[in-house]
Structures
1.
Amino acid sequence: MIFITVGTQLPFDRFILGLLSVLEECDILDKHKVVVQCSSDHTEEYLYYSDKYSNLEVVDELNKESYSLYFEEADVVFSHAGMGGVIRAVEFGNQLVIFPRLAEYREHRNNHQVDTCHSFRNKFSNVHVAIDMIELKSIIVDLFFGKETKEESGSDWKENRKNLIAGIANVVNQY
């Protein structure tokens, strides 16, 4: 299962619609269950995908239990570069692709998510960083047509968890 999550603060259409377009182009949308968690003010463009692909579900805000259940079920999680997604992916052993919200598109107040992405690039075997759509497509091709699945990478989740805690401490101590 593919879980796409953007948190609860702001819409992130650039990411979701770009990601769905790439997944469609790579012929992935019709082969996997896909759950898209987005803000309640998602655009009409989402309907194109949910109407075309019966296995694609669009949900608004999720409670903590539902959010955890989707992470537990997912093989691959695509998320904004928020810490909640990184922590959950390490906890559940998901392949996680993070993508930053950018201030220039009014997706956030500043570009701290770019800093988060740079901090986590190449730190964990299951956390992948895409700064733009070109990197996102490259990661998707690797994950779905060449690289490991959750089962293959999940065995090192305890080590990833230890490294995550140390990594978060390093990031926090920088400020």
Note: Residues 2-173 form a domain with the Rossmann fold fold (CATH 3.40.50.2000).
2.
Amino acid sequence: MAQYHRDLAAARAFVTQLTGYLIQDDELLFAALDTSGNYAAQSNRRLALYGDRILSSVLADAWYLTNQPVDRRFCSPRVECSYQRASSGVGERVGLGPHINRNNGEQGQPITKNTMAATVEAIIGAVWIDCGKDFDIVRAAIKCMDLDNYPS
């Protein structure tokens, strides 16, 4: 595993508190928090894309169970922006920033909303993989993160 520049145990405790789930795999946890590109060529972007799709699936499942009619808003790019804003807001609200592994050149700079959202989504992807793709566990983690609301 690449050298994590922060205390991985503290990051694990933070992510566990955030999601209600203990990620066991050190490399998976590190990959979710890495935006530097030093660990993997695409940093946490692959996990973020995966986590974004898991989040969408959990929200679509919750919507479907309500028997609400199809709403064009649910299928629009605006909804994707709403997910991203919510993910970014969660990361900012809970203080995720200090646990994100960034390039040395980015240290001291504000973390962008896109980076914050991608990291929250990467954490969702990491939970999904680590829990053996258990939909109930990832649904509970998303609820714990307060991301389980249908976007308006």
Note: Residues 76-82 have pLDDT under 50 and may be disordered.
3.
Amino acid sequence: MIRERKPAGPMGRDEADAVGVEALSFLAGDPKLLARFLDLSGIEPMEMRARISDPAFFAGLLDFLLAHEGTLAAFSQASGRAGESVAAAREALSADFAAGPR
């Protein structure tokens, strides 16, 4: 079941990071989907751990989910997050690019 939340304003970085972690966990649970993400992004598996603190990494991961309706629907079903919250997290992370890693 998808949790419907009514945000008071733009999503904060902490929640956006949490969505990114959930998305990474979702991909890690599906080897074919993870391989597709790695192929499309050009990221090596060993490189992922070092990139986790970079908001651009999670933004790219969320872009991957948002680019395919079926993948987004599967993530939404698994995580309980509406697609809109994935888009809001992507927006929050992209706004933080200039700030760099935390």
Note: The chain has a mean pLDDT of 87.
4.
Amino acid sequence: MFIAADHRPTPLPIWCELPLDYRPTEVRVQWASNPWMQAQALRLRREVFCAEQGVFQDDDLDAIDARPDTRLLVACADLAGLPDEVVGTVRIHPEGEGLWWGSRLAVATAWRRHGQLGSGLIRLAVGSAHALGCTRFLAHVQPQNEALFRRLHWQTLDEVQIHGLPHRLMQADLAHYPPCHTPWAGLVLAQRSRP
């Protein structure tokens, strides 16, 4: 067999050329449905509340996380239509007749400019609790997030200290949160701005 000395293989066509800083444009907000989602959500909480904000020393887990009626919600960046990475989280739990609480809202630093993650997590948190009989939904909100909650139809009830830091006790106006009966499927958020 004779092969010419100057024969070079023909380069293959490029099928998909994504920028190196590619980020998915859609995020699904849902109840955590897999162990990897729960693990990544707890890791994100440690990053935000321990490493970044210093609210807790090593871990933010508490008795609420151990309760069987606590629900962990996640915002997952989708890749090819499948959840790939947890980029936001919040937890909810009932506390008596019709009363539900939300807490530990966290969004990954690189995703805070998405434009809808925090509000999407809040909408699903309140909407899914509403579907489960919630008649009053409360949260202790850090002051820097108070304006976001007000835009989402929350009212400030009081100023309190939680873990040595100022917080606002806030209540959701349930009239703006229709019941969500499919929290495992959740909702899809399109990106407004580049993360």
Note: Residues 90 and 122 are 8 Å apart (CA to CA).
